[in-house]
Amino acid sequence: SSMAELCVHSVLVTGANRGLGLGFVQHFLRMPKPPQWIFATCRDPKGQKAQELQNLASKHLNLIIVALEVANPTSIKAAAAKVGEHLGGSGLNLLINNAGVVKSKMLDAETLEDMTETYATNTAGPLLMGQ
């Protein structure tokens, strides 16, 4: 598979504390030549929901957990600065915009607040992250 041949120096995965995001982190750690830096981001790195990530980071020095709220430009700037401290001027090779929210409900129960949060996280978030 092309994923097996992929050779990256640095990768950042959003929403890395569970599900697919955590799966990506585990995959990169298991590669024959793992990235020199794996940045795993989630909203609350010290929280209970990030326990598995914390366990992995204690065993792998190349895994850095970074606090990040993808819909918040201030949070993105802070995360980018932290990543930059490790990478210097070399820049990030791969960004995996995995973080997302799903609030499935019936049409008549839908709210403007939930739609706005979903759009901010799932649509604007990846754009802001790319910038």
TrEMBL record:
Annotated Gene Ontology cellular components are: cytoplasm
- What GO molecular functions are on record for this protein? oxidoreductase activity
Q: Which PANTHER family match?
A: C-FACTOR-RELATED (PTHR43544:SF38), SHORT-CHAIN DEHYDROGENASE/REDUCTASE (PTHR43544)
* Annotated coiled-coil segments of the chain: none
For this protein, the record's Pfam families field holds:
adh_short
Name of the protein in question: DHB2 dehydrogenase
- Gene that encodes the chain: Hsd17b2_0
Provide the taxonomic classification.
Eukaryota, Metazoa, Chordata, Craniata, Vertebrata
